[in-house]
Design a protein that fits this description.
The chain is mainly α. Helix content is 47%, strand content 3%.
Length: 577
């Protein structure tokens, strides 16, 4: 009711022609559907100090933006007179309210409804309409809408039409087609060729003011070695200690940890106790070659002896291979060579590295040389799996690519011979600590399986009872775990991380004693699933364990659980009985 009375009062004043007699105390305009109520008391004060509000171009009812007083004062200074200022929302009745552009002398003057004449001839002779007509003629009209003046000239042809048009326009919704001042957006930068200047979007800036975009010169790409080999290769081959000179800890994933390893390995005499303590939680890949060779006892702790020792060991292996293959394959032990030859292609069949012929020939020579040097055990199936982590770690130290996808035939024969010789000696050091696993009747593995059964019985009695009820013996699934050191149950990268901890425990204790606790934690991990399966289901599940998606965190959790069981039971064997 109150809105209707106010509107009727405004209509009455217009009809009586009293709008120009005295200023309106409060002129209130309303928009359809409850748009904002705008008070115009300050609108009619021509002091030029009041900021006025106008609606932004966004299609949100009642959205307003502030036009600073500076834009008003600039017009005042140029024209010498104070232009009328309107406070309130813009209507689509463009002859009533028009866009105000600072600094434009020909800008139209806003008019109040009471200032409109009663006929078309006088209406078109008013200064405000003439100014708007001249202003509109200078502007390029929008191709998608008619001129605002053309729309409203028809509504001013008579008194009644002008008044009806006024009522219609003031009740309509807001019209966003007015020429509002647009907000400049940042220029859009488009991608271009490396040597071409960057281009900007034409819609982002006006034609007279083109934003300046600085040219970004592309970084020159570091020329990659076509064979994927690292720089300073000769220096690293002669002495792995030189890896420390070319490794920046800040470029690694864990710079603090890498710095600690670098400090320990940089000593003239490496402290193996400190190195084991750091290696238990994992060795950075940049230093794994040097750390493994030190922990296995292949690389001397004294830095002064390393170059001479490596040269001597590598020559010794090379001479042994030359002597063995002097007469070619025909001069080898055919039974031994045949068994190795058929096992090599089955080694890590899912890893491309071990399917290349050059890799298979390296592994074949390594295993044959080890077998003829250890006649007490000879070659046993499973040893072929144990050489692969060592070979991959040593290869990764000399290339920048993923070693599992690398074809070693790209390497220079001298580099490949170094990797092969170092792998042979480190495999020999590893197997020296667990050699009774591969002698006649494999007594070492037998002892490990008995210990595993006792551990699982104490840790998870329900699982042990379930396996017994299904007629499953531990040796049926655990023999492979001990013989191949879980190589066929876990991804190769997980095995490499696990061997960091094994070597930290000691090359003998880690691969024999601690490995049993790892197997116990590994079996208990699947307890819930195993207790729901019968004999056949259990055997199939344990041979196809879902570990292909394991990450380093999964391996570390397994090692932590194994360490917990070792702490509880290793020094208290009576608790296992």
């Amino acid at each position: 009711m109150k809105l209707g009375l106010l509107r009727q009062q405004l209509i009455t004043q217009i009809r009586m022609g009293n709008c120009g007699a005295k200023p309106i105390p409060t002129a209130t305009l309303f928009l359809k559907f409850g748009y904002q109520l705008v008070h115009c008391q300050k609108a009619l004060s021509l002091d030029g100090r009041t900021s006025f509000w106008r609606r932004r171009g966004a299609k949100l009812p009642g959205s307003v933006s502030i036009v600073p007083r500076s834009s008003v004062s600039s017009t005042e200074n140029e024209s010498g007179s104070k232009p009328p200022i309107l406070v309130g929302a813009r209507y689509n009745y463009t002859s009533l309210v028009t866009s105000h552009r600072p600094g434009d002398k020909n800008a139209p003057i806003a008019m109040l409804p009471c200032q409109y004449p009663s006929n078309s001839s006088s209406a078109l002779s008013l200064p405000g309409i003439q100014a708007f007509k001249s202003y509109s003629s200078k502007k390029s009209p929008s191709p998608k809408r008619p001129s605002p003046l053309t729309q409203h000239q028809r509504s001013l042809s008579s008194t009644h039409k002008s008044f009806d048009a006024f009522l219609m326009d003031t009740n309509d919704e807001w019209n966003d087609t007015l020429e509002y001042a647009t907000v400049r957006e940042p220029p859009q930068i488009t991608n271009s060729e490396p040597n071409q200047p960057l281009s900007t979007s034409s819609d982002a800036a006006s034609p007279t003011e083109t934003p300046t975009v600085s040219k970004v010169s592309p970084k020159p790409a570091k020329p990659a070695n076509p064979r994927g080999m690292k720089d300073h290769l000769d220096s690293i081959l002669n002495d792995p200690t030189n890896i420390l000179l070319y490794t920046n800890p800040e470029d690694t994933l864990d710079s603090a940890r890498t710095n600690k390893f670098k400090e320990v390995l940089s000593n003239t005499n490496v402290d193996l106790v400190a190195l084991r303590a750091l290696s238990w939680s994992g060795i950075p890949k940049e230093f794994r070659l040097m750390a493994w060779q030190l922990l296995l006892g292949y690389l001397p702790c004294n830095s002064a002896r390393r170059v001479a020792t490596l040269a001597r060991k590598r020559k010794e292996y090379s001479d042994s291979v030359a002597a063995s293959y002097a007469r070619g394959i025909a001069g080898l032990d055919q039974a031994l060579w045949h068994q190795i030859h058929i096992d090599i292609p089955r080694t890590n069949p899912g890893v491309p590295l071990y399917q290349y012929e050059a890799t298979q020939l390296c592994l074949e020579r390594i295993l044959y040389q080890w077998a003829i040097r250890h006649p007490a055990s000879g070659y046993v199936q499973g040893i072929n799996d144990l050489v692969t982590p060592i070979f991959e770690v040593f290869l990764a130290a000399y290339i920048d690519e993923d070693p599992e996808d690398y074809d070693v035939s790209q390497l220079d024969p001298s580099i490949l011979s170094v990797i092969e010789a170092d792998s042979f000696w480190c495999l020999s050091k590893l197997l020296d600590g667990i050699q009774d696993n591969y002698t006649f009747a494999q007594p070492g593995i037998q002892r490990q399986i008995v210990t595993l059964k006792e551990l699982v019985c104490r840790i998870d009695a329900r699982l042990t009872n379930h396996l017994q009820n299904e007629g499953i013996e531990f040796i049926q699934f655990a023999f492979r775990w001990m013989n191949c050191l879980l190589m066929r149950e876990l991804p190769l990268k997980s095995i490499i991380r696990m061997w960091d901890t094994y070597l930290a425990e000691g090359s003998s204790e880690g691969f024999s004693e601690f490995h049993v606790y790892v197997c116990a934690a590994f079996l208990v991990k699947w307890s819930e699933q195993l207790q729901k399966l019968d004999f056949q289901g259990v055997m199939i599940f344990l041979q196809q364990l879902p570990t292909q998606g394991w990450s380093e965190k999964d391996v570390e959790l397994l090692l932590s659980e194994a360490y917990m069981w070792k702490t509880l039971f290793h020094n208290a064997p009576s608790h296992l009985k």
